[in-house]
# Entry
Amino acid sequence: MLASAKSKLAVPDLTPTIGSELKADADALVSGAFSAEIRALLEERGVVVFRGMNLTDEQQIAFTRTLGPAVEEGVFKISMDPKVNPVAEYTKGAFYWHIDGTMSDVPIFASIMSGRKLASVGGQTEFSNTYAAWEDLLEAEKAVLDGLKVVHMFEVSQRYVNPEPSFETLQAWQTFQPNTLPLVWTHRSGRKSLVLGSTASHVEGMDLREGWALLTRLRDYATEPQFVYRHEWTVGDMVIWDNTGTMHRAMPYALDSGRLMHRTTIQGDEPFA
# Structure
């Protein structure tokens, strides 16, 4: 555990296994005063919450850059309104457990999301600590799982949203090539985490139905309450999560609710291994 970062910042845990809350003023965050400690805290706790920060987009972008190179300029507006978010149809996949970047060899390190407008019902975000889930497995099961490979496909995640796509839609999905990843990610730190989520198609070399059963059982296990933090949003909250050691999903809400989140992302520098 990375107790030094936690002790220095004196942050309370939100659950025993995932999530901590950090109180800091905007100027301190934008200055990068806590950047090293926050990165360490993310690896240890998966999620860091800043309640009622009310950062402007410019401040959020500046804060993001203190933690590492940003993936994109500006903010990405997470909305189900296609007038606000041109890829709103794909964004509907956010309602299912996933890790961002499983179609790449190097996923993003972390995402930072701020609440701008909330749904009147639903719209919470849940996070699962996939480090903690791995660590809590029995040693005998770890021995069986370590070394297995899983094929991930973009089209599999989209079938959660649209189970009967047109041929044209399917062709568009299939422009994303399948990606084979380890089921158990051995990180540079030596720690291990499970790589699961809605893009997971099948286990390489395993009977198809047996593999589906394994992936479903592990997803259910990794998202049991002891590994999950649910964030109840208020406008102005900001949440950071370590995308390399968590899964996340949005809880259902009305697509016409106007819910709006502003997200920035930090480039990853560690390939799945």
The chain has one domain: 16-266. The chain has a mean pLDDT of 95.
